[in-house]
Amino acid sequence: MRQFSxxxxxxxxxxxxxxxxxxxxFQVRENPxxxxxxxxxxxxxxxxxxxxxxxxxxxxxxxxxxxxxxxxVSHSDKTRAMLKKSCEEETDHLIWTRQRLLELxxxxxxxxxxxxxxxxxxxxxxxxxGDRWSLGFVEETEIQVAKHLQxxxxxxxxxxxxxxxxxxRMRDEEMQHEQAAVRAGATDMPVIIKKCMQWHAMxxxxxxxxx
Length: 211
What we know:
The chain is mainly α. Helices cover 75% and strands 0% of the residues.
């Protein structure tokens, strides 16, 4: 099996970053909204749904970057396997949210490139702290993401059946990722780190809803 050099790994990460931000298209599983009929939405409701789905898409961009940043520096086969599995499922989430935005005649966030590289750096820092801390970061990230998705389910228009199906599936799988991190040996994050993560999430959700 070929051993990748540091430069090879950098180039792979750059390619993955471009694919995530601009053209992720390899979908492993069927979109949960694929066979659901479009509901009757007003223009205002479509804009509201698009805002939430744009936030969710950027959240998946950030998740991809976090996992890849951690994978870049992790040396544990067990941790790498768990991160890769989660990353693959997050790729489906990324594609589902992008597809929904297109159906709503809207766009992904123009700030995704900034959030990707910022999250990638955070992922590398978490990974360098060691596997238990890295997994703890995954656990806390997924807890916060699941809470955001539940909030979106409560705020999305009742008639937007397709968006609600996607968000519901995403929420359930984020909770599974959290439990996988716990089983793998995650350590609980200090309160100050949890707060910083919450502030970062608040910035991302507030801005990308509109931009």
